[in-house]
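Issue: ligand-bound run for zinc ion - logging full I/O for the record.

Environment: standard queue, default settings, no custom constraints.

Inputs:
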Amino acid sequence: MDKSMRAMVLHRPGRALELENIPVPRPSAGELLLKITACGICRTDLHVVDGELTEAKLPLVPGHQIVGIVQESAPGVEGFTPGDRVGVPWFGGACGECDYCLSGRENLCDQAIFTGYQTNGGFAEYCTANSRFCFPLPDGYPDTQAAPLLCAGLIGFRSLRMAGSGKRVGIYGFGAAAHIVTQVATWQGREVYAFTRPEDTAGQSFAREMGACWAGGSFDSPPQPLDSAIIFAPAGELVPLALRAVAKGGIVVCGGIHMSDIPSIPYDILWGERSIISVANLTRQDGLEFLRLAPQARVRTEVEIFPLEQANEALAALREGRIRGAAVLATGF
Ligand SMILES: [Zn+2]
Ligand SMILES: [Zn+2]
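Outputs:
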């Protein structure tokens, strides 16, 4: 058993991660020790590294779409044994006792713990994780392609569900979550309308390849009014645009954890029973359902793979919109 491991460590928001050798963590009661094979990079990691999310523990190993092999299970672990392949998502713990936890809304728990934010995450060779918040992963996905299912997929799925069951779904920002949601929505028999930065023709053709029936710039009007719109890009100015794109009764879902300020809007674009809702985190039930559905819907993930020590380059590529699909760190075992 290794005593130390390579990890990409954040010491101060706004600064680059540093490649360091740190001790392999020890699992406490109820935790697994995982040897990490792949970890997806999420826009939330950017918000953590850039300091837009301000509650990160420091120093921190970011990363919350972790695929790993169980090395050790501490006392109190049920359902996992050494050698199992598991996934660790953003949602890493909850109190289990509050009104939210007891009403099927553990994603809103005030005591929730988030992987790669309040605990060390997956930009490393090993991590520990609360076994009750880990998922078995479906067969048929190599580790690097399974990783984006764990946040892009799960949050995307929850966002799609919040969007209701209408046929015409708009998606603003065509990154990791959008490319998965598009496949799920089209599998459900819906139409996806993709909105990207106006000049991003590569993103628009990627969206069509993934199944979108229409793709255009964020200022364009869709060919017909939408039933819902999901905003994955962290830009508040998209909210009024999305409200104008949905029909009466339409739902605008903000799928990100951070967004720039939303400009003030005339009431008439909200009128007509349009609504705006945010999506916070995920429940374990979302995870189980989505990971069962992904292989049925034949969801495939497009990934750009970076070695662990190139986490900064991968984050920069994501920040600049240069990633097609999802960025994933492969740990190289
Ligand atoms: Zn995420
Ligand atoms: Zn709770």
